[in-house]
Amino acid sequence: MSLFDENAEILAGMGRDGSDLGPSRPVDFSHIFPDLTSANSFATECENDGFKIDVIETDRVENPWDVTVTVQMQPSAKNVTSWEERFDALAQTYGGRADGWGFFRV
C-alpha cells in the first residue's frame, strides 16, 4: 500500500468516526532523531520556514528525540502525503525520519 493510500484510509476512518475533515486545521507531523543536535537542526530549518515546532526528549533508547512540525491545512490525503514526504526527506538529511501524523492540537 502506498503512503497516499495509507493516508487516504486513515482520513476516511477519521471521517467515519465523526472528525470534521473539511475545514483547515493544524496537522502535526512527528519525527524522531538519535540526538538533540540532529533534532534541533531539523527543527531550526522548519521553524525558519514558518512552522510551529516542538522538540522533546522521550524515554526511548533508540531515537529518543521527537520533533513535531505543525502545518495549518485542509487534511486531505494529497496534502498530508505531500507534507509527510517533504518533512521525511528533510529529517533524513539530519539522521531522523518521519514517525506519523495526527491532530495532536485541536
UniProtKB/TrEMBL annotation:
Residues 5-102 form the Regulator of ribonuclease activity B domain. Gene3D superfamilies: RraB-like. It holds the Pfam family RraB. InterPro entries: RraB-like_sf (IPR036701), RraB_dom (IPR009671). This is Ribonuclease E inhibitor RraB. It comes from Sphingobium soli.
